[in-house]
Design brief:
The chain has 11 helices and 4 strands, in the order βααααβαβααααβαα. By secondary structure, the protein is an alpha/beta fold. The protein has a single domain, classed as Rossmann fold. A 4-stranded parallel sheet has the order 2-1-3-4, with helices on both faces. Its EC number is 2.8.2.-.
Length: 180
């Protein structure tokens, strides 16, 4: 079985957490990989310069890839593949606050300015990766066409949902569409 999992959540929406969960599932619960290999190597970012070389050099399956890219850039390739998409979203208020603080500490991003100005940029879709609202709508509206599992950060945070979420992810990643 070939499984390529793409995680396209928008900024600060639970990406790293999902990378860890998928790594543990794909390694059958063995934490060695998570503890010894950086997440950007285990689940490289499509938008980073090193990803193309990684894909050429890696023959292992399943491959786990991560991206914040919007739906229109990936949809055609994903529709023609057997990839599974795990889309993690988060409440826009929490994304806004988290992304604001991330902007303040990350030197590779533009200066965040005041929270009020940042809020207006967020609402107008003028930050990196564009509109949060368009990003969510673009991916979730295509769920049935893309073999997409939509998980929210808030559900991941609920202790009672953790076992349920883990079961759903295991089934989604490994048991759906297996040959009989």
């Amino acid at each position: 079985m070939t499984l390529e999992t793409y995680g396209p959540p928008l900024q600060t929406g639970g990406t790293t957490w999902m990378q860890e969960i998928v790594t543990l599932i794909s390694s059958r619960g063995d934490p060695h990989l998570s503890q010894t290999v950086p997440n950007w190597t285990r689940a490289p970012w499509l938008e980073q310069y090193y990803c193309a070389d990684f894909l050429k050099a890696s023959s292992s399956r399943p491959r786990v890839l991560t991206t914040h890219l919007p739906h229109p850039l990936l949809s055609p390739a994903l529709q023609a593949s057997k990839a599974r998409v795990i889309y993690v979203s988060r409440n826009p208020k929490d994304v806004l606050v988290s992304f604001y603080h991330f902007h303040r500490m990350a030197n590779f991003l533009p200066e965040a300015g005041s929270f009020s100005a940042f809020l207006h940029q967020f609402l107008e879709g003028k930050l990196h990766y564009g509109s949060w609202f368009d990003h969510i709508k673009g991916w979730t509206s295509q769920a049935s066409d893309l073999n997409l599992l939509h998980v929210t950060y808030e559900k991941m945070s609920m202790v009672k949902m953790s076992l349920y979420l883990l079961l759903v992810l295991v089934l989604f990643c490994f048991f759906v569409s297996l040959p009989a």
